[in-house]
Specification:
It is built from nine helices and nine strands. By secondary structure, the protein is α+β, with helices and mostly antiparallel strands. It has a domain of 138 residues. The protein has a four-stranded mixed beta sheet with strand order 1-2-4-3. The protein has a three-stranded antiparallel beta sheet with strand order 6-5-7. α3 packs across α6 and α5 runs antiparallel to α8. It is globular and about 70 Å long. The mean pLDDT is 94. It binds zinc ion.
Length: 333
């Protein structure tokens, strides 16, 4: 890797580190206010006669709005970090690449500049919409992850993902203007699960968890990368990770998510009697003592078995290397 490229990466990492720390503190303060307001609202509603329930509702609403304001401030910090990263990309990589004649670096830096800038704007805009919808009660209350959900994300990401401030908004009808699509999506640390079927809940959580991971580790640019991939490559192709250049870090943001979703759904783990169990994230329990494998075919009807025209391909090594890489990125929160 060239010196300029390394420098560019170092600066981007340093900026995101600061942005993560600051935005995390703000988000957490908002969530704490919201929790306290909820408790207070409940107490008032129960104990104050006649006007209690109305006052309690108002107190809870104020808590939610305070949290929404903090979330917006947090996305502004991350968004500003993304724009700053984009500008340094342009200066170090763009101008530096021009001077040294490194055209690959110039191209990469231009893409970085565009993705970071658009990503910063998208995340900030998303935070603003979320706040407005909270004020007018147009979106369902965000809820914290339950124990099972935390355990699933822990199993896959270990300590590399900070789960404390990850929230879920359930229901397509409760997602406000975002109801235009039935696809779940992630805006920073908030996952809009829409009407995800209970049977698909866990693997979808893992997919969206990858987007939160991207947000926490690379900043707002993931949102522009994901949208850009869907726009440029087409909706279906953007998810087809097996057509992407390896390693996983070179996948587009949607393919990165789908890869983990598929590993969760179809990865296997060898049992003590030698047979293989599949699914429910058992792949991620593989270690030096217990073998795992991940084989996949682009035969849509049964990707874990394939057929004559679409034989199974071996992705175990890519799966394990990627999982190691992801887990080894320390959380900056
Ligand atoms: Zn996705």
């Amino acid at each position: 890797m060239s010196l300029l490229k390394r420098l560019k990466k170092k600066v981007a990492k340093a900026i995101n580190k600061v942005a993560e720390k600051v935005s995390n503190t703000i988000e957490e303060a908002g969530n704490n206010i919201s929790d306290a307001a909820n408790d207070l609202g409940d107490t008032v509603a129960r104990n104050v006669p006649i006007i209690g329930p109305a006052v309690g509702t108002a107190v809870r609403w104020m808590g939610r709005v305070s949290s929404g304001i903090c979330d917006l401030a947090a996305t502004a910090v991350k968004g500003a970090g993304a724009v700053l990263t984009g500008v340094t990309d342009l200066i170090i990589g763009g101008i530096g690449g021009l001077i040294t004649g490194d055209w690959g670096l110039v191209k990469e830096s231009l893409i970085g500049f565009i993705e970071n800038t658009i990503g910063g704007i998208l995340i900030l805009g998303g935070g603003f919409i979320s706040l407005i919808q909270t004020i007018f009660g147009a979106q369902h209350r965000k809820t914290k992850l339950n124990k099972t959900e935390i355990n699933i994300l822990r199993l896959v990401f270990r300590e590399s993902l900070d789960t404390k401030n990850i929230c879920i908004i359930k229901g397509r009808s409760g997602s406000g203007v975002y109801r235009f699509t039935d696809r779940p999506f992630t805006m920073g640390n908030i996952i809009y699960m829409k009407d995800t079927d209970p049977a698909d809940w866990n693997k979808t959580l893992v997919h969206e968890g990858v987007h939160v991971w991207q947000y926490q580790h690379t900043g707002s640019r993931y949102s522009a990368d994901a949208l850009g991939a869907q726009f440029i490559l087409g909706k279906d192709r953007s998810y087809q990770w097996w057509k992407e250049p390896t390693p996983w870090t070179e996948f587009n943001a949607e393919a990165q998510g789908k890869f983990f979703e598929h590993m969760y759904e179809g990865g296997e783990l060898q049992q003590p009697n030698g047979s293989w169990a599949r699914g429910d994230g058992c792949f991620f329990r593989g270690d030096a003592m217990t073998l795992n494998q991940f084989r996949f075919s682009d035969f849509e009807e049964d990707p874990w078995v394939g057929n004559a025209d679409h034989p199974l391909q071996e992705y175990t090594q890519l799966g394990n290397e990627t999982t190691d890489y992801v887990r080894n990125q320390p959380s900056e929160r």
